[in-house]
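LOG
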Amino acid sequence: MKKNIVFIAKSLDGFIAGKDGELDWLNSIPNPEHNDMGFNNLMDEIDAVVMGRKTFEVVSGFEGEWPYSKHVFVLSNSLKNIPNTLSEKVSLLKGTPQQVLSRIHNKGYYKLYIDGGSTIQNFLAEDLIDEMRITTLPILLGGGFSLFGDLDQPLDFDHIKSKVFLGQLVQDWYKRRR
C-alpha cells in the first residue's frame, strides 16, 4: 500500500521556521525525558523519507548521530553530492513530485515520510499527501516559513485523533478524505 505521511511541528500561527529560518523555538518546551512524540513509531511505519534540500542541510548540521533509520531521498535541483558519511543512507533525486514518487516506488519504497516546507507544499499542491501528523507548539512566531501554501482547490481531511505531549504540545492526526 502506498502512503505519504507528513510529520511536522508548527507554531500556533502556522509557521515551521522563524523569519530567519530559526528552529530554536522547537525546544521552547522542556523535554527532560526526551519524549520522541511519535517519531520512532513513524520510523517503524515507513519505508523511506523524502525531504527537500533545505531540510536536509538543516538536519545534516545537527549534532549527534544521523536521526533517520530509513533511507532518505533528498529532492534538489542544485545539490550535486551527498557527504561520504551519508552516501549509503541518502540519495539525491529531482523532478516533479509524481516523477519522484515513481522512481522511489520503483525502488520498492511505498510508505513515505514527507518532510520539509517546500516539499510538503509541492506534494499537497498535487494532492499527494495521505496523512498529516502536525504537532502545534504554544508559541506565536509572527512570521517565518508557513507550513501551508496556496492550493488550486481545497483538500478535505478527516481528523483522526489528538494527543498532548509534555502537557502543552498538541499533535493532531489527519487523513485525506478521498
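LOG (cont.) second protein
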Amino acid sequence: MSKGKTSISKASSYQETAEFWSEHDLADFWDKTEPAEFDVEIESEKRYYPLECELSHEVNKIAHKRGISIETLLNLWVKDKINELNKSLNLTKK
C-alpha cells in the first residue's frame, strides 16, 4: 500500500481494503472520489493452446533455468520455428 495517500477505507493493507469494499458500496462514497486519468497500453491479443503435461513440465524447467517466463520462452520458440519454416518454404510476410 502507498504511504501518505488518503483512502476512503483507511485500510493499512490490501486485505483490509478488500474486506472494506466487500462490505461497502462505492455509490455510498461517490462524493469522496476524484477523477483519475491514466494510459492503457494494450498488448497483443493472447490465445491459449493446450500443452501435454509432460511437455509443460519440461518447458517450465527450461524457462526457469534461463530466467525467463514460460510465455516468453514459448513465444521465442514459435517465432523461431515460423521464421525457419517461412525461409524453407520461401514464404514472406505480406
